[in-house]
Amino acid sequence: GAVVSQHPSWVICKSGTSVKIECRSLDFQATTMFWYRQFPKQSLMLMATSNEGSKATYEQGVEKDKFLINHASLTLSTLTVTSAHPEDSSFYICSARVDRAYNEQFFGPGTRLTVL
Amino acid sequence: AQTVTQSQPEMSVQEAETVTLSCTYDTSESDYYLFWYKQPPSRQMILVIRQEAYKQQNATENRFSVNFQKAAKSFSLKISDSQLGDAAMYFCAYSPSNEKLTFGTGTRLTIIP
Q1: Nearest 5°: CA angle at B43, between B51 and A66?
Q2: Using the beta-carbon criterion (under 8 Å), do A102 and B33 form an inter-chain contact?
Q3: Contact criterion met (CB < 8 Å) for A42 and B35
Q4: In Å, how far from its chain's centre is CA B39?
Q5: What is the three-class DSSP state of A82?
Q6: Chain B residues with CB inside 8 Å of A49's CB?
Q7: Closest to A30 in 3D by CA, of A98, A79, A82, A95
Q8: Greatest extent of chain A over all pairs of C-alpha atoms, in Å
Q9: CB contact, 8 Å: A95 with chain B?
């Protein structure tokens, strides 16, 4: 149980284009999903917290107009990188909270974005 | 602001031996959760063990156990009988009741056959 998927697993795009990454909770409903960014050999950096049916809460320094997050249902959150540039190349990971009592997050397998 | 510190960027251990990974954190909260996550080369984050701050008993999951020292704000992970499959990045993480995770910088664990 508690499986989270991400699609695509990797994507290459040209500079200036937009890319959408999907995060799905496959066997549970997630009221809260999180989006992280991870640079090589570094830790996970939280970008935003996504709550179903409401606007995402972005961390300081994260451009909300560049990283659009939508959490339209209890099983799906999307991250759209708009007008991508090479510096946006990174590994993007989503997670979903399963059980408030345990405060535990289950992670997706990640999406590697390369912007040419 | 809460911070999580992992002072060991890299560790290595002989197969079948025991290794301890260190983690300290800073918080003014009294109620919170602590986690150790494993990230193998596949980069899939896997929960290893978790600890609720209100519990005095140290959490244990098979070969993995923690030494939780609340007053010292220390949360170390002990891996017993190390196996080749334990090779990975290990991240310590802290979360207060608002559920946002703060990660440490990670420790890369190498298992020597």
Answers
A1: 100
A2: yes
A3: no
A4: 11
A5: coil
A6: 100
A7: A98
A8: 43
A9: yes
Question: What is the rounded CA–CA span in Å between residue A112 and residue A40?
Answer: 11
Cα A39–chain centre separation: 14
Kindly determine whether residue B91 and residue A32, on different chains, have CB atoms separated by under 8 Å.
no
Residue contact A109–B44, C-beta within 8 A: yes
Residue A114: name the closest of A92, A94, A98 by CA: A92
* A34: contact with B, CB 8 A cutoff: yes
**CB contact burial B84-110 (16+ within 10 A = b; e otherwise):** eebbbbbbbbbbbeeebbbbbbbbebe
The per-residue pLDDT for range A1-60, each reduced to its tens digit, is 689 999 999 999 999 999 999 999 998 888 889 999 999 889 999 999 998 888 899 999
